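Annotated sample (chain length 114).
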Amino acid sequence: QVQLVESGGGLVQPGGSMRVSCAAAGLTFSRLDMRWYRQAPGKEREWVAAISTTGRFISYARPVQGRFTISRDDVKNTMYLQMNSLKPEDTAVYYCYAPSFGSWGPGTQVTVSS
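Output written by the structure step:
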């Protein structure tokens, strides 16, 4: 059974930084492309970032480019999203996604507010 669990969310002030993590189990993590999505209140879920196996190919949505960094640790079966220069509009529930399985985690809330 595939399990994805996000962690590391919380409250941060505008301009601050936060790192969220996605721990994976029940799959061969190192062989999978992975993605981060987010969903703000009243809005549709949107793609944030993607990372290929081995981390060779990485891409970002325009609103987060230059501020967010996606990475992975295949030994720990964990994916990360380092978020810097956070803005109130980054407030959302952040989800990790494994496209090969169509699996989502439950999400972690990130709130950017003073």
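Annotation: The chain is about 0% helix and 50% strand.
Annotation: The chain has a mean pLDDT of 96.
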